[in-house]
Amino acid sequence: MIAGAHPRTEPFPAGPSPFIPVPLTQGGEGRRAFRGAAPCSGLVPEDRRFPRRPGEFRFPLAPPPPPPAFLRPAPGSRLPVPCPLPRAPGSRFPAPGSRLPAPGSLLPAPCSRLPAPCSRLPAPGSLLPAPGSLLPAPGSGPGDAAALLPGVTGPPARGPRSAALRQRPPPAPAPGQHRGRGADVRLFSAVRRAGAKGTRGNPDVRKKFLTVRVAKHWRRLPREVMDVPSLETFQVRLDRCAGRIPEAEAVLDLLEKCPEHQKKGGFPVIVFEGLDATGKTTVTQAVKDTLNGVLLRSPPACISQWRTVFDDEPTLVKRAFYAAGNYILASEIAKASTQAPVIVDRYWHSTAAYTIATETSGEVQDLPPVQDEVYQWPEDLLKPDLVLLLTVDPDERVRRLQHRGLQKTKEEAELEANNLFRQRVEESYRRMVNPACQEVDASPSKEEVLKTVLQLIKKHCAF
Ligand SMILES: Nc1ncnc2c1ncn2[C@@H]1O[C@H](COP(=O)(O)OP(=O)(O)OP(=O)(O)O)[C@@H](O)[C@H]1O
Ligand SMILES: Nc1ccn([C@H]2C[C@H](O)[C@@H](COP(=O)(O)O)O2)c(=O)n1
Q: Which of 31, 180, 192, 427 is surrounded by the fewest CB atoms within 10 Å?
């Protein structure tokens, strides 16, 4: 284990590390800064699992070999028009803790999939801090990205949309609510976003958002946590905290660049869900190899380096981050499924199940009842063809966790210690509908699990 690394990060197998350990500035977990190697090439910075699977997030430059016959679209069937891939933007925000390159040099885009046009740093004399100065970790200063930059009195240079956002006065706290860390935990906010098309560029999201149906709410869940999920809900939530979390603004920028209507291609999309160490990584890799498919995971590579930031946030903000990741992932799925079967490691069901389990307490009987709206799929999110829920006997799962030998995340420690939490996550998965999960007993050997999974895929995805 490298000092300062994320608990789940393993040492690199060979060669010099592109990461530099960053001293802890606050909180309990170390962060690692990306040293500036161009991630466009496909390597993923600061992903909890990156070193285990270095090539995984590479988007295939050439179409993979054809999948087995049973997965090919029927002759004569029409493939949807391929969606343009979302452009990976040049990062406006240097990774927290990273050293700034010289003015005029190229910033690496945070997305691993595409050779994005990287943005140029503003010219000398702009409001960026001196090259080589260290950025503090997000959240370490008061409310705004500008406040986080040492020696800078004004805001960092930003695009026109951010400037428009900045001009509005800060929204007043909701009755009974305090500013500060939890201040963005509010249901509605006035948001003006300009510049992009469709709902993503809706100049007044609030106006539209207020007309959105709100779920009748189950008494034990805070209403805000489970209001009917939609892209706009999460945009509003991220926008509320973008002032103090620069990464939220960067996520919003990526979202805006995703095509609005995500349509699945002609190949099947198969999602794998389950608690940690149930074998998702193992089986998704094997299925991808067997089917000559494309393997994607949530959150997608272009935002996964910010997980440690959002994992420490209140549930509402954390959920908005993972939910946004699902929408970004949807555009990758849309594109990839025009070329080959798509295998996905976690998607919406994870976001919902973990949120429900976190925001409830007690036994599974205390969960919102079956058929509650909290178990519904968001109407505007691309649906997969099949969702497989891997479940493993609890003792076997602990053995696998120990055998894996990685340091646990806080949540994994909680999952291990808190039997009830684990049960609530798993039961929430089981209650998800439209699409529901097909449960797979993943306790047998890897070969047997793969066989079962391939049979299910053949049964449900043949067309
Ligand atoms: N069927 C199996 N039988 C025995 N061991 C397995 C099986 N599947 C996976 N393992 C082992 O269990 C450990 C956890 O598996 P894996 O990393 O695939 O789980 P995961 O669900 O992806 O976990 P996480 O969500 O935490 O990343 C690994 O050491 C893996 O080799
Ligand atoms: N689509 C997703 C993916 C992940 N999450 C959350 C749920 C857990 O808090 C954590 C598990 O991730 P892992 O350790 O397996 O990489 O991430 C989510 O909410 N939505």
A: 180
